[in-house]
Amino acid sequence: MSRKSNLAYQNYETAQEQKKQQPTIKKVSKRRTANYIRPYKAIALIIVAVVITSSMVLSMVQLNEINDQISAATAELETQKSEAVRLNMELNKTMSINNIEEYAETELGMIKMQSNQVEYISSSAGNSIEIPEEKDTTIFEKIKDAFTNFLEYLAG
C-alpha cells in the first residue's frame, strides 16, 4: 500500500488526531434526584407527624378520663340503687299490718275491736238534717269572733 502524500490528506489526519486528543465538552442538563428531600419539607413533615401524634395522645387521655368518670358514676348509681332497695325493705317492714297492730297494742294501749262491741243504730226519721237558724249577733260578738279567728290563725 502506498502511502498517500497529499498535503490535504495529512492536514485531515492531523485534524482528526487533534480532535481525538481534545476533550469534548458535553452539556449535561441538571437532573433532580428523586430521593432528595428539601430540608423545609422534612421539617414540615416532622411537625405534622408530631401534631398528629400529640393530638392522638391527648384524645386518648381525655377518653380515659371520661371512662373513669363513667365508672365512678356507675358505681355511685349502683350504691344508690342498693340503698333504695334497703330503705324500701325497711319501710315495708315498718309499715306491715302486724307491726302497726303491735305498736297500737303495746305503746298506745289499744285493743282489737270484738264483734260484741259493735252497736248498730237505726233511724226511723230517715235521712234528714236540721240546720238551726242563726240568731242575730251584736257588733261585740262579731269583734270577739274575728279576734278569736285571728288568734287561731296565728297559732296555726
UniProtKB/TrEMBL annotation:
TM annotation in the entry: 40-61
Keyword tags: Coiled coil, Membrane, Transmembrane, Transmembrane helix
Polar residues bias spans: 1-15
Domain of life: Bacteria
Region span, Disordered: 1-26
Name used for this protein in its record: Cell division protein FtsL
Lineage: Bacteria, Bacillati, Bacillota, Clostridia, Eubacteriales
Natural source organism: Clostridium facile
Coiled-coil stretches: 63-90
